[in-house]
Amino acid sequence: MMSATVSNRSSWSISTWLSVVSLTFGSFALISSELLPMAVLTPMAADLGVTEGAAGQAVTLTALLAGVAAPTVALIIGRLDRKLINLALCALVIASNIAVAFTSDYFVLLAARMLLGVAIGGFFALAGATVVRLVTMEDMGKGMSTVFMGLSAGLVVAPAIATLIGEAFGWRAAFMAAAGCGLLALLLQTVCLPSVPATSATSLSSLFGLLKRRPVRVGLVVGLLFFGGEVSGFTFMRPYLETSGGLDPTAIAAVLLTLGLASLAGSAIAGVFADRMLRDGFGATFLVLAIATIGLLTLSNAYIAILVFAAAWGIAIGAGPVMTQTWMGRAAPDQLEGVGGLFLAVIQFGVTMGAIAGGVAVDVVGTSAPLYVTATCATLAAILITTQQAPDAVSQTPAVASAAAE
Predict the structure, then answer these.
(1) CATH, residue 352
(2) pLDDT (tens digit per residue) in 62-97
(3) Residue 332 has what DSSP assignment?
(4) How far apart are CA 51 and CA 90, in angstroms?
(5) 156 and 296 share one domain
(6) Fewer CB within 10 Å, N- or C-terminus of the chain?
(7) Are 307 and 255 within 8 A, CB to CB?
Protein backbone atom coordinates (compact mmCIF):
# COMPACT_ATOMS: atom_id res chain seq x y z
CA MET A 1 0.00 0.00 0.00
CA MET A 2 2.77 2.44 0.94
CA SER A 3 4.76 1.73 -2.21
CA ALA A 4 1.67 2.30 -4.32
CA THR A 5 1.02 5.62 -2.62
CA VAL A 6 4.58 6.78 -3.09
CA SER A 7 4.44 5.72 -6.71
CA ASN A 8 1.31 7.79 -7.26
CA ARG A 9 2.98 10.79 -5.71
CA SER A 10 5.87 10.63 -8.14
CA SER A 11 3.82 9.97 -11.29
CA TRP A 12 2.49 13.39 -12.25
CA SER A 13 2.34 13.73 -16.00
CA ILE A 14 3.58 16.81 -17.84
CA SER A 15 0.00 17.97 -18.34
CA THR A 16 -0.68 17.70 -14.60
CA TRP A 17 2.45 19.68 -13.79
CA LEU A 18 1.49 22.36 -16.29
CA SER A 19 -2.04 22.65 -14.88
CA VAL A 20 -0.73 23.10 -11.33
CA VAL A 21 2.02 25.50 -12.42
CA SER A 22 -0.57 27.61 -14.23
CA LEU A 23 -2.17 28.13 -10.80
CA THR A 24 1.28 29.01 -9.43
CA PHE A 25 1.46 31.89 -11.90
CA GLY A 26 -1.99 32.92 -10.73
CA SER A 27 -0.87 33.14 -7.10
CA PHE A 28 2.22 35.10 -8.19
CA ALA A 29 0.11 37.61 -10.12
CA LEU A 30 -2.28 38.03 -7.19
CA ILE A 31 0.30 38.59 -4.44
CA SER A 32 2.38 40.85 -6.70
CA SER A 33 -0.66 42.99 -7.41
CA GLU A 34 -1.71 43.08 -3.75
CA LEU A 35 1.67 44.32 -2.52
CA LEU A 36 2.39 46.65 -5.43
CA PRO A 37 1.22 49.91 -3.78
CA MET A 38 3.83 49.44 -1.04
CA ALA A 39 6.61 49.62 -3.64
CA VAL A 40 5.36 52.79 -5.35
CA LEU A 41 3.53 54.43 -2.46
CA THR A 42 5.28 57.81 -2.47
CA PRO A 43 4.99 58.70 -6.19
CA MET A 44 1.48 57.23 -6.38
CA ALA A 45 0.25 59.33 -3.46
CA ALA A 46 1.86 62.49 -4.88
CA ASP A 47 0.34 61.94 -8.33
CA LEU A 48 -3.15 61.31 -6.94
CA GLY A 49 -2.93 64.23 -4.53
CA VAL A 50 -3.50 62.19 -1.36
CA THR A 51 -1.40 61.41 1.69
CA GLU A 52 0.78 58.33 1.82
CA GLY A 53 -1.43 57.01 4.60
CA ALA A 54 -4.51 57.34 2.38
CA ALA A 55 -2.71 55.67 -0.53
CA GLY A 56 -1.70 52.83 1.77
CA GLN A 57 -5.37 52.04 2.34
CA ALA A 58 -5.33 50.54 -1.15
CA VAL A 59 -3.59 47.54 0.44
CA THR A 60 -5.82 47.45 3.52
CA LEU A 61 -9.03 47.60 1.49
CA THR A 62 -7.81 44.81 -0.80
CA ALA A 63 -7.11 42.55 2.19
CA LEU A 64 -10.49 43.27 3.77
CA LEU A 65 -12.36 42.54 0.54
CA ALA A 66 -10.39 39.32 0.10
CA GLY A 67 -11.53 38.16 3.52
CA VAL A 68 -15.16 38.94 2.75
CA ALA A 69 -15.03 37.55 -0.79
CA ALA A 70 -13.47 34.20 0.13
CA PRO A 71 -16.55 32.56 1.69
CA THR A 72 -18.92 34.63 -0.45
CA VAL A 73 -17.48 33.44 -3.77
CA ALA A 74 -17.74 29.83 -2.60
CA LEU A 75 -21.42 30.40 -1.87
CA ILE A 76 -22.45 32.14 -5.10
CA ILE A 77 -20.61 30.23 -7.84
CA GLY A 78 -22.82 27.15 -7.53
CA ARG A 79 -21.83 24.38 -9.94
CA LEU A 80 -20.03 26.50 -12.53
CA ASP A 81 -16.87 24.99 -14.00
CA ARG A 82 -14.01 26.02 -11.71
CA LYS A 83 -11.76 26.62 -14.70
CA LEU A 84 -14.11 29.35 -15.88
CA ILE A 85 -14.15 30.86 -12.38
CA ASN A 86 -10.33 30.93 -12.28
CA LEU A 87 -10.19 32.58 -15.69
CA ALA A 88 -12.73 35.19 -14.55
CA LEU A 89 -10.63 35.90 -11.46
CA CYS A 90 -7.53 36.38 -13.64
CA ALA A 91 -9.54 38.82 -15.75
CA LEU A 92 -10.36 40.77 -12.56
CA VAL A 93 -6.63 41.02 -11.78
CA ILE A 94 -5.96 42.44 -15.25
CA ALA A 95 -8.88 44.87 -15.09
CA SER A 96 -7.95 46.07 -11.60
CA ASN A 97 -4.35 46.85 -12.48
CA ILE A 98 -5.21 48.54 -15.78
CA ALA A 99 -7.84 50.69 -14.05
CA VAL A 100 -5.33 51.78 -11.39
CA ALA A 101 -2.71 52.52 -14.04
CA PHE A 102 -4.99 54.87 -15.96
CA THR A 103 -7.00 56.57 -13.23
CA SER A 104 -6.32 59.96 -11.67
CA ASP A 105 -9.16 59.58 -9.17
CA TYR A 106 -8.43 58.16 -5.72
CA PHE A 107 -11.88 56.62 -5.33
CA VAL A 108 -11.67 54.88 -8.69
CA LEU A 109 -8.35 53.44 -7.51
CA LEU A 110 -10.01 52.11 -4.35
CA ALA A 111 -12.85 50.59 -6.40
CA ALA A 112 -10.32 48.90 -8.68
CA ARG A 113 -8.49 47.51 -5.67
CA MET A 114 -11.78 46.10 -4.41
CA LEU A 115 -11.96 44.06 -7.62
CA LEU A 116 -8.51 42.71 -6.82
CA GLY A 117 -9.68 41.76 -3.33
CA VAL A 118 -12.50 39.71 -4.84
CA ALA A 119 -9.98 37.96 -7.11
CA ILE A 120 -7.64 37.16 -4.22
CA GLY A 121 -10.44 35.87 -2.01
CA GLY A 122 -11.95 33.75 -4.76
CA PHE A 123 -8.66 32.28 -5.97
CA PHE A 124 -7.35 31.14 -2.61
CA ALA A 125 -10.78 29.95 -1.45
CA LEU A 126 -10.94 27.62 -4.47
CA ALA A 127 -7.24 26.75 -4.67
CA GLY A 128 -7.30 23.71 -2.39
CA ALA A 129 -10.35 22.18 -4.05
CA THR A 130 -8.97 22.82 -7.53
CA VAL A 131 -5.59 21.29 -6.69
CA VAL A 132 -7.20 18.17 -5.20
CA ARG A 133 -9.31 17.74 -8.35
CA LEU A 134 -6.12 17.89 -10.39
CA VAL A 135 -3.80 15.65 -8.35
CA THR A 136 -5.91 13.76 -5.71
CA MET A 137 -6.07 14.28 -1.94
CA GLU A 138 -2.93 12.21 -1.27
CA ASP A 139 -0.88 14.76 -3.20
CA MET A 140 -2.62 17.86 -1.85
CA GLY A 141 0.47 18.97 0.08
CA LYS A 142 2.70 18.63 -2.97
CA GLY A 143 0.16 20.48 -5.10
CA MET A 144 -0.37 23.32 -2.62
CA SER A 145 3.40 23.56 -2.17
CA THR A 146 3.76 24.18 -5.90
CA VAL A 147 0.95 26.76 -5.97
CA PHE A 148 2.23 28.61 -2.91
CA MET A 149 5.71 28.89 -4.41
CA GLY A 150 4.15 31.58 -6.61
CA LEU A 151 3.07 33.43 -3.50
CA SER A 152 6.53 33.17 -1.92
CA ALA A 153 8.19 34.26 -5.16
CA GLY A 154 5.88 37.26 -5.32
CA LEU A 155 6.80 38.25 -1.78
CA VAL A 156 10.51 38.07 -2.65
CA VAL A 157 10.82 39.62 -6.09
CA ALA A 158 7.66 41.62 -6.81
CA PRO A 159 8.30 44.61 -4.49
CA ALA A 160 11.89 45.00 -5.72
CA ILE A 161 10.98 44.71 -9.40
CA ALA A 162 8.01 47.06 -8.98
CA THR A 163 10.27 49.62 -7.32
CA LEU A 164 12.75 49.46 -10.21
CA ILE A 165 9.98 49.77 -12.82
CA GLY A 166 8.45 52.66 -10.91
CA GLU A 167 11.76 54.49 -10.73
CA ALA A 168 12.51 53.95 -14.42
CA PHE A 169 9.11 54.39 -16.05
CA GLY A 170 6.74 55.70 -13.39
CA TRP A 171 4.40 54.04 -10.91
CA ARG A 172 1.67 53.50 -13.52
CA ALA A 173 4.02 51.31 -15.57
CA ALA A 174 4.45 49.07 -12.53
CA PHE A 175 0.69 48.43 -12.45
CA MET A 176 0.70 47.70 -16.18
CA ALA A 177 3.46 45.15 -15.56
CA ALA A 178 1.24 43.55 -12.89
CA ALA A 179 -1.59 43.45 -15.42
CA GLY A 180 0.83 41.65 -17.74
CA CYS A 181 1.44 39.04 -15.03
CA GLY A 182 -2.30 38.56 -14.76
CA LEU A 183 -2.57 38.17 -18.54
CA LEU A 184 0.18 35.54 -18.52
CA ALA A 185 -1.65 33.62 -15.79
CA LEU A 186 -4.88 33.87 -17.79
CA LEU A 187 -3.23 32.52 -20.95
CA LEU A 188 -1.51 29.66 -19.11
CA GLN A 189 -4.72 28.61 -17.36
CA THR A 190 -6.66 28.84 -20.62
CA VAL A 191 -4.23 26.45 -22.30
CA CYS A 192 -3.04 24.21 -19.43
CA LEU A 193 -5.89 24.01 -16.92
CA PRO A 194 -8.40 21.25 -17.78
CA SER A 195 -12.10 21.59 -17.17
CA VAL A 196 -12.78 21.33 -13.43
CA PRO A 197 -16.49 20.56 -13.10
CA ALA A 198 -18.00 21.17 -9.68
CA THR A 199 -18.97 18.09 -7.68
CA SER A 200 -21.20 20.09 -5.33
CA ALA A 201 -22.23 23.61 -4.40
CA THR A 202 -21.47 25.27 -1.07
CA SER A 203 -24.49 26.33 0.98
CA LEU A 204 -24.68 28.64 3.98
CA SER A 205 -25.75 25.77 6.23
CA SER A 206 -22.81 23.59 5.14
CA LEU A 207 -20.45 26.52 5.69
CA PHE A 208 -21.57 26.91 9.29
CA GLY A 209 -21.67 23.15 9.67
CA LEU A 210 -17.92 23.05 9.11
CA LEU A 211 -17.43 24.83 12.43
CA LYS A 212 -18.84 21.77 14.21
CA ARG A 213 -15.81 19.73 13.13
CA ARG A 214 -13.00 19.82 15.65
CA PRO A 215 -10.13 19.53 13.12
CA VAL A 216 -11.59 22.49 11.20
CA ARG A 217 -11.82 24.59 14.37
CA VAL A 218 -8.24 23.65 15.27
CA GLY A 219 -7.05 24.60 11.79
CA LEU A 220 -8.79 27.97 11.95
CA VAL A 221 -7.31 28.77 15.38
CA VAL A 222 -3.84 27.72 14.25
CA GLY A 223 -4.21 29.79 11.07
CA LEU A 224 -5.19 32.81 13.15
CA LEU A 225 -2.17 32.34 15.42
CA PHE A 226 0.24 31.73 12.56
CA PHE A 227 -0.73 34.57 10.24
CA GLY A 228 -1.38 37.02 13.07
CA GLY A 229 1.95 36.25 14.72
CA GLU A 230 3.88 36.26 11.45
CA VAL A 231 2.52 39.64 10.33
CA SER A 232 3.11 41.15 13.77
CA GLY A 233 6.81 40.30 13.63
CA PHE A 234 7.45 40.79 9.94
CA THR A 235 5.80 44.21 9.75
CA PHE A 236 8.18 45.58 12.35
CA MET A 237 11.25 43.49 11.53
CA ARG A 238 13.15 46.40 10.00
CA PRO A 239 12.70 48.79 12.98
CA TYR A 240 13.80 45.99 15.31
CA LEU A 241 16.94 45.24 13.28
CA GLU A 242 17.76 48.96 13.16
CA THR A 243 17.35 49.63 16.87
CA SER A 244 18.37 46.36 18.53
CA GLY A 245 20.70 44.99 15.87
CA GLY A 246 22.21 48.32 14.86
CA LEU A 247 22.04 47.33 11.19
CA ASP A 248 22.18 49.77 8.30
CA PRO A 249 19.77 49.57 5.34
CA THR A 250 22.17 47.49 3.23
CA ALA A 251 22.59 44.89 5.96
CA ILE A 252 18.84 44.80 6.59
CA ALA A 253 18.18 44.28 2.89
CA ALA A 254 20.44 41.22 2.97
CA VAL A 255 18.54 39.85 5.97
CA LEU A 256 15.17 40.36 4.31
CA LEU A 257 16.44 38.82 1.05
CA THR A 258 17.69 35.79 2.98
CA LEU A 259 14.33 35.49 4.68
CA GLY A 260 12.49 35.76 1.38
CA LEU A 261 14.61 33.20 -0.44
CA ALA A 262 14.28 30.82 2.51
CA SER A 263 10.49 31.16 2.32
CA LEU A 264 10.69 29.84 -1.24
CA ALA A 265 12.59 26.82 0.05
CA GLY A 266 10.04 26.38 2.82
CA SER A 267 7.19 26.32 0.32
CA ALA A 268 9.07 23.84 -1.85
CA ILE A 269 9.81 21.29 0.87
CA ALA A 270 6.59 21.62 2.86
CA GLY A 271 4.59 19.47 0.46
CA VAL A 272 6.58 16.33 1.29
CA PHE A 273 5.97 16.70 5.02
CA ALA A 274 2.34 17.75 4.55
CA ASP A 275 1.55 14.61 2.56
CA ARG A 276 3.49 12.10 4.65
CA MET A 277 3.66 13.40 8.25
CA LEU A 278 1.15 16.21 8.47
CA ARG A 279 0.84 16.68 12.23
CA ASP A 280 4.56 16.35 12.99
CA GLY A 281 5.55 18.59 10.09
CA PHE A 282 2.90 21.14 11.04
CA GLY A 283 4.03 21.26 14.66
CA ALA A 284 7.68 21.44 13.65
CA THR A 285 6.93 24.43 11.40
CA PHE A 286 5.66 26.48 14.32
CA LEU A 287 8.43 25.25 16.61
CA VAL A 288 11.04 26.43 14.09
CA LEU A 289 9.29 29.80 13.86
CA ALA A 290 9.27 30.16 17.65
CA ILE A 291 12.95 29.19 18.01
CA ALA A 292 14.02 31.43 15.13
CA THR A 293 12.16 34.39 16.64
CA ILE A 294 13.66 33.81 20.08
CA GLY A 295 17.06 33.56 18.40
CA LEU A 296 16.57 36.93 16.71
CA LEU A 297 15.59 38.41 20.06
CA THR A 298 18.57 37.04 21.98
CA LEU A 299 21.35 37.27 19.40
CA SER A 300 20.51 40.55 17.69
CA ASN A 301 24.12 41.77 17.90
CA ALA A 302 25.58 38.84 15.93
CA TYR A 303 25.00 39.41 12.21
CA ILE A 304 25.73 35.82 11.12
CA ALA A 305 23.28 34.55 13.74
CA ILE A 306 20.68 37.02 12.48
CA LEU A 307 21.08 35.67 8.94
CA VAL A 308 20.77 32.07 10.15
CA PHE A 309 17.66 32.74 12.22
CA ALA A 310 16.17 34.86 9.42
CA ALA A 311 16.60 31.88 7.08
CA ALA A 312 14.88 29.59 9.60
CA TRP A 313 12.13 32.20 9.98
CA GLY A 314 11.66 32.26 6.21
CA ILE A 315 11.47 28.46 5.92
CA ALA A 316 8.74 28.42 8.57
CA ILE A 317 6.62 31.16 7.01
CA GLY A 318 6.99 29.52 3.60
CA ALA A 319 5.91 26.13 4.92
CA GLY A 320 3.11 27.41 7.16
CA PRO A 321 0.50 28.21 4.48
CA VAL A 322 1.06 24.85 2.74
CA MET A 323 0.73 22.93 6.00
CA THR A 324 -2.34 24.88 7.11
CA GLN A 325 -4.13 24.54 3.77
CA THR A 326 -3.42 20.80 3.67
CA TRP A 327 -4.68 20.35 7.25
CA MET A 328 -7.88 22.22 6.40
CA GLY A 329 -8.38 20.20 3.23
CA ARG A 330 -8.04 16.90 5.03
CA ALA A 331 -10.29 18.14 7.82
CA ALA A 332 -13.11 18.71 5.32
CA PRO A 333 -12.43 16.78 2.10
CA ASP A 334 -16.14 16.90 1.24
CA GLN A 335 -16.33 20.71 1.58
CA LEU A 336 -13.00 21.90 0.20
CA GLU A 337 -14.32 25.15 -1.23
CA GLY A 338 -16.30 26.07 1.87
CA VAL A 339 -13.41 25.35 4.21
CA GLY A 340 -11.09 27.24 1.86
CA GLY A 341 -13.34 30.29 2.10
CA LEU A 342 -13.47 30.13 5.89
CA PHE A 343 -9.73 29.70 6.04
CA LEU A 344 -8.95 32.72 3.91
CA ALA A 345 -11.39 34.86 5.90
CA VAL A 346 -9.53 33.85 9.07
CA ILE A 347 -6.19 34.61 7.40
CA GLN A 348 -7.25 38.15 6.57
CA PHE A 349 -8.61 38.64 10.09
CA GLY A 350 -5.34 37.32 11.50
CA VAL A 351 -3.30 39.64 9.27
CA THR A 352 -5.36 42.63 10.41
CA MET A 353 -5.16 41.70 14.10
CA GLY A 354 -1.45 40.93 13.83
CA ALA A 355 -0.71 44.34 12.34
CA ILE A 356 -2.79 46.03 15.04
CA ALA A 357 -1.21 44.00 17.86
CA GLY A 358 2.29 44.68 16.52
CA GLY A 359 1.63 48.40 16.23
CA VAL A 360 0.28 48.63 19.78
CA ALA A 361 3.17 46.53 21.10
CA VAL A 362 5.74 48.81 19.43
CA ASP A 363 4.14 51.95 20.80
CA VAL A 364 3.75 50.60 24.34
CA VAL A 365 6.85 48.43 24.80
CA GLY A 366 9.33 48.95 21.95
CA THR A 367 10.49 47.51 18.65
CA SER A 368 11.23 44.06 20.09
CA ALA A 369 7.66 43.57 21.36
CA PRO A 370 6.11 42.41 18.03
CA LEU A 371 8.64 39.58 17.85
CA TYR A 372 7.54 38.44 21.29
CA VAL A 373 4.01 38.34 19.91
CA THR A 374 5.29 36.15 17.05
CA ALA A 375 7.14 33.79 19.40
CA THR A 376 4.12 33.45 21.68
CA CYS A 377 1.70 32.77 18.83
CA ALA A 378 4.05 30.22 17.23
CA THR A 379 4.56 28.41 20.54
CA LEU A 380 0.81 28.23 21.21
CA ALA A 381 0.20 26.93 17.68
CA ALA A 382 2.89 24.25 18.06
CA ILE A 383 1.40 23.09 21.38
CA LEU A 384 -2.12 23.01 19.95
CA ILE A 385 -1.14 20.98 16.89
CA THR A 386 0.95 18.44 18.79
CA THR A 387 -1.97 17.70 21.13
CA GLN A 388 -4.30 16.91 18.22
CA GLN A 389 -4.78 13.93 15.99
CA ALA A 390 -4.15 14.70 12.33
CA PRO A 391 -7.32 14.60 10.21
CA ASP A 392 -7.62 11.49 8.07
CA ALA A 393 -6.73 11.82 4.40
CA VAL A 394 -9.47 10.61 2.10
CA SER A 395 -8.29 8.64 -0.89
CA GLN A 396 -9.85 9.89 -4.05
CA THR A 397 -8.81 10.06 -7.66
CA PRO A 398 -11.19 12.43 -9.39
CA ALA A 399 -11.95 12.09 -13.05
CA VAL A 400 -10.29 15.38 -13.82
CA ALA A 401 -7.08 14.23 -12.16
CA SER A 402 -7.11 11.05 -14.17
CA ALA A 403 -7.70 12.99 -17.35
CA ALA A 404 -4.85 15.36 -16.59
CA ALA A 405 -2.50 12.46 -16.02
CA GLU A 406 -3.23 10.83 -19.34
Answers:
(1) 1.20.1250.20
(2) 878 888 887 787 778 777 888 999 999 999 999 999
(3) -
(4) 30
(5) no
(6) N
(7) yes
